[in-house]
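Review the following:
>
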Amino acid sequence: MKLLMTAAALSLSLATQASAHATFAETQVVQGETARLTIRIGHGCEGEATLRVRVQIPEGLIAAQPMVHAGWQLETVTGAYAQPYEYYGRTLTEGVREIVWSGELPNAHYDEFVFRARVTDTVPLDQMLYIPVVQECANGAERWIEIPAEGQDAHDLEGPAPGVMVVAPSAGHGH
């Protein structure tokens, strides 16, 4: 009986681990404001440690700034925006398009990676904003990059990109 319970617990653990994916701690962001976003990484790649976490900054998020993560190296990749954006009296035509943290997160551990970015009014209200994340390991990667088509449930995808709901600013609140 003890062997059967151990096998059942191991099976449940592996099923939970296989279904885990990159997610955000936050559930929503406010259009027209700067959002703090926390990517949660709950496991490695097929039992291997995560060595790199890459975040692709989608169009409509501007002025992205990653938080330094102790013990990890930080790199940003800049590029042109699809259109110019006004940001505190300046016109921005380019900015951070990808954030890369490099280090080592053992498979058995959990960690979070943080960045902030301005959510422009070009990001549609009351819709999910999907932000692709790739975990790289020594012999593979977990690619959380799939964005559901209109009417498709993100849970039906094998590698769904994590997302947050874009909401309107509350009345009387603005920056």
